[in-house]
Amino acid sequence: DYDPYDQTPPVYYLRQALQRRNRRKGCLGLSNQSLTLHYDIDAADFSAAGEASSGVKRTLNKIGVNPAIVKRVAIAMYEAEINAIIHAGGGEADIEITPEKITVKISDHGPGIPDIAQAMTAGWSTAPETVRELGFGAGMGLPNMQRYTDDMQIESTVGAGTVVTLIVNIV
What we know:
Elements: H1 11-23, E1 35-41, H2 51-62, H3 67-88, E2 91-97, E3 101-107, H4 116-119, H5 129-132, H6 141-147, E4 151-157, E5 161-169
Antiparallel strand pairs: 1-2, 2-3, 3-5, 4-5
Helix pairs in contact: 2-3, 3-6
């Protein structure tokens, strides 16, 4: 449970970062116990791919999260970001950072995933050839997301979109 007097990193650094950011105007989603971030994932813009995951990586490094955890979050989030661009024409990323865990929720309004079990198979991909020629779409996105997280949930409705929730525990 959350201890407001815990002085151990990264809890101490997260609390300090929250207090500093809380003093600024216009900060998005701040409380004394969590930091929330939001990013739009641009449609079919491979040049901007990774901006959201890079921003989260910078934030986690600034607040003193263990580098091994930062790496796991960045890899899993990048894979989800790329999937949103390839398969759904973009989407949104919402991140919540607490002293206990980092939750990344990537949502889109794409075609949805008709068979999640099949999509989880390493090497299986529905990426178009034009995307594969760019070096993307090898069918490792979902398996890599699962590999680098402590929990992953996929909610998908064909014709309506997909929400991927990634959780990496800090403690």
